[in-house]
Amino acid sequence: MTSKQFFVLAILFMLSWGSLCWAQPDEGKEGVSVTTEQSNEPVQTKTLGQLSEQELEDLLWMVEEERLAHDVYVKLGSKWPLRMYDNISSAEKVHIASLSNLLKNYGVDVSSLGNQSGMFTHSEIQGLYSELVERGEKTLEDAIAVGLLIEEMDIADLSKRIKRTDKKDIKQVYQFLQMGSRNHLRAFSRQAAFRNVEYVPQHLSQKEFDDIVRGSHERGRPGRGRRGF
């Protein structure tokens, strides 16, 4: 088994275990079912090779986008009594660790990546964080809409980045993050329906959005007993 094959299997094991945790139903404060995802220790493996400039840029961006989701949910979870924010913010930690490990395995020093809550390297993400927190703190309905926006943005951005790499390990990690985001989108959508929150997708088409939220909770890995791929 090559080191690259070992890395892919290790990442799949970590994320598959996390997916099993996501599948456990958890009741929100209003009796609306939400999903649970638990953090796992990051996998440590050897350097795999070289990233193109585009691949490196994409991975660094996605680390910050996942941090954006985590930090916004932590902030909103401190204001609104929905356990969903705690559950999904924990899930984002797994996503961040998965991307960071991927960068490490390509020899990228991730120590310079920001880890201070609410602080980001990319000015666009910094501005978006401030905007989403301000909006989400107005009302619980606004907070739910913010969650929908973050998750559909994540799904759309990952789709773009999957098309921009030919590396199987990167694609697989991106696909697992997408699976998590689809599950999170469904959780926020259930809360939106329960509270009569109207939402118009901004990053996905209406059909893409509807197809996801109408789908079943996903688990597993590509090609092995999972839905959605």
From TrEMBL:
<feature type="region of interest" description="Disordered">
    <location>
        <begin position="210"/>
        <end position="229"/>
    </location>
</feature>
<dbReference type="InterPro" id="IPR019243">
    <property type="entry name" value="DUF2202"/>
</dbReference>
<dbReference type="InterPro" id="IPR009078">
    <property type="entry name" value="Ferritin-like_SF"/>
</dbReference>
<feature type="signal peptide">
    <location>
        <begin position="1"/>
        <end position="23"/>
    </location>
</feature>
<feature type="compositionally biased region" description="Basic and acidic residues">
    <location>
        <begin position="210"/>
        <end position="221"/>
    </location>
</feature>
<dbReference type="InterPro" id="IPR012347">
    <property type="entry name" value="Ferritin-like"/>
</dbReference>
<keyword id="KW-0732">Signal</keyword>
<feature type="domain" description="DUF2202">
    <location>
        <begin position="57"/>
        <end position="214"/>
    </location>
</feature>
<protein>
    <recommendedName>
        <fullName>DUF2202 domain-containing protein</fullName>
    </recommendedName>
</protein>
<dbReference type="Pfam" id="PF09968">
    <property type="entry name" value="DUF2202"/>
</dbReference>
